[in-house]
Amino acid sequence: MIKRIISFLLLANLSVNTYAVLDITITQGIEEALPIAIVPFQWQGQPNDLPVTMHLTIANDLARSGRFRTMDAGDMPQTPSQFNQINFADWRLLGMENIVIGNIRQTGTGQYDIEFRLINVYSGEQVSGFRIPASRDQLRRTAHRISDIVFEKLTGVRGAFDTRIAYITVKPTPDGDKVHTLQVADADGFNPQILLESNEPLMSPAWSPDGKMIAYVSFESRNSAIYIQDILTGARQMVASNPGINSAPSWSPDGTRLALTLSKEGDPEVFILNLATRNLIRITNNRAIDTEPTWSPDGSSLLFTSDRGGSPQIYQVSSSGGTARRMTFEGNYNSRARYSPDGSSITMVHNNGGGFRIATLDLANRFVHVLTTARLDESPSFSPNGSMIIYATTRGRGTELAAVSSDGRVHQRLGLQDGDVREPEWGPFPPQ
Amino acid sequence: MKLTLIKPVLSSVALHVVAFGMLLVSLDFTPTPRQPFVDNTEIIDAVTIDSVQVEQELNNIKEAEQQRQQELAEIQRQSEQAEQKRQQEEERLAAIKKQQQQEEALRKAEAEKLAVIKKQQQEEEARRKEEERKLADARKQQEELKRQQEEEEARQKAEAERKRQEELRLAEEARKKQEAERLAAEQAGQQAEQDRQDMNVINSYVARIANAIEREFNTAGLPPGLSCIFQIRMIPGGDVAEARVVKSSGNSVFDSRAEIAVKRASPLPVPDNPRIFGKMREIRLTFAPN
């Protein structure tokens, strides 16, 4: 404010008689969700003919991110589907900054063209517009792709709606047993697909960097073992089955190695397994429990959980081994760390006496930001664009998935599954 | 000078005193004629023894004798008296002569004295005149001095007056000059003063405009350190007629948020006064959030 006035006065002195252009500096702004209206896409057929309501899927995506405030269709002053139908004054009057209009046209049996335009209401210009051909099965994913485009155009950050999550479900069977499944779904929880079903526990799904493989822990052979499985083909192979614990696999960014926890030498320690050579390198060597390794985005170091200090805390160690450095000091419990995609922060389960909650630790200023308020939250995982965190939360007698924007502003439960849903892991961007 | 004048006066006085003393002595010693001695004691007795006739006869004889005696005595006395008278006359004449002489001397002395006195008087007169002259001179001098003093006073007074007048004139000149300068400055400064007042008004709107835009400038999710510059043009009433990017931040989302902020904030708060509005209808907006 002061700076602004000073700069103005300086200019004013020079401009008394010349009436030079007034100089004003905007030094602050607000941080609010961007208002946007996703106008129902024009469709000549019956509404129920389509498996996806495009504008709702897009609006839900954008709202879930915490970055957008979407307008209900019933509040819209008009529902244009073409640029020249837009009455900009009406939208401006409502403070609407951007609108998305579109139409769906059937081009053949089970084939569609989806056309959409992102319009800046205040400039009256089209920001972006595409026609996307899609099969009936691809309509939902097409909606996510449109969400991604809108998100990137208006926030400058690549959208992560057209991504998937992996997670474990546990469901009791009528005969008293439990069914454990490894599933993959769209990032909004829709379109779940079972990759593996087992009567024995499944744990710790981990995405390969290319999004084609998932590593996980299975107790199908009574002892824990680590498998990797091709998502498309379902082909799987066991990569670690050592005496004692085999757990917590994590893919290296280059996809060639797995970090994991083994107790074959006594107590749980972090190792790195070369997938091609099956060579194992021990990274930690401490009589306490060292587990839950995760790679830094550049692959140079690992975070892991250790109780070597008396309580579980996050430590960092070089991916070639060496001395570990404690990272967390706030709270009596910090575990299961995951890096943000840009490496600037980590998310973890944090307990400072009020419960197990999802928090982020800013690595630059060491500020811990607790994002959730439930009693027992677990397994946080960043979206590949870093804008959201998915996690599991306890509800009633079970657990379900929930998402929170990484600034903690927007919370959403993804209550789509029956039974317990655990250990969600957000997959990478799809190949562009 | 005075001493020499006084001495002759004293000596002449002394001389007069001596002369007077001599005159008195001579008068006291003038000779007086004496009575002849007569014894009457026996005759008286005789009468007493004889009878009144005898006595009468005797008285007659005696009286005839006495008569004769008396005549003789008378003649004697007359002759003596004549003699005495002649002597007296002589004496008187001598006395007169002497007196005359004395008188002459006295007269002379008197004359001398008078001369002295006259001289003295003359001297006195001269002295008095001199004195008067001196007095006159002194008076004249004094008058001259007084005149000079008065002249000097008058001159000084005139000079003071002249100075006072000069000072008044200078003061008046200075005042007039100041007044003229003030008027000139006032006239010349009217525009500047108006500009200054306008700037005060504009300044108050700068903050309001900035606040209005800041309320609409959504920086959520934007990377830090970006800045861009817009130039906007308003129409009366504050509606933003034009907003163009002068310098892009390099981030199209940032630029777009800035532009939307301007347009959402439109109409911006502007003064009604057309003159003042005219000075601020063009604004260079720098978006540089902290």
Architecture overview:
The complex is a heterodimer of chains A (432) and B (290). Chain A has four helices and 31 strands. In chain A, helix 2 (54-64) packs across helix 4. In chain A, strand 17 and strand 18 (280-282) form a beta hairpin. Helix content of chain A is 11%, strand content 46%. With 432 residues, chain A is mainly beta. Chain A folds into three domains: 1-29, no CATH class; 34-155, TolB, N-terminal domain (Rossmann fold, 3-Layer(aba) Sandwich); 164-426, TolB, C-terminal domain (Neuraminidase), CATH 2.120.10. Chain B has helices spanning 2-28, 41-49, 52-214, 252-265, 274-280, and strands spanning 228-234, 240-247, 282-287. In chain B, a hairpin with a 5-residue loop joins strand 1 (228-234) and strand 2 (240-247). In chain B, helix 1 (2-28) runs antiparallel to helix 3 (52-214) and helix 3 (52-214) packs across helix 4 (252-265). The longest helix of chain B has 163 residues, at 52-214. The chains are: A mainly beta (432), B mainly alpha (290). Chain A binds chain B through residues 1, 4-5, 8-9, 12, 16-17, 19, 21-34, 67, 92, 95, 97, 120, 122-123, 127, 153-157, 387, and chain B through 191-192, 195-196, 199, 202-203, 206-207, 209-210, 213-223, 231, 251-254, 256-261, 263-264, 278-280, 282-290.
Characteristic key phrases:
heterodimer; A: 432 residues; mainly beta; Rossmann fold; Neuraminidase; 11% helix; globular; disordered N terminus; B: 290 residues; mainly alpha; Fusion Protein Consisting Of Minor Coat Protein, Glycine Rich Linker, Tola, And A His Tag, Chain: A, Domain 2; 2 domains; three-stranded antiparallel beta sheet; 3 strands
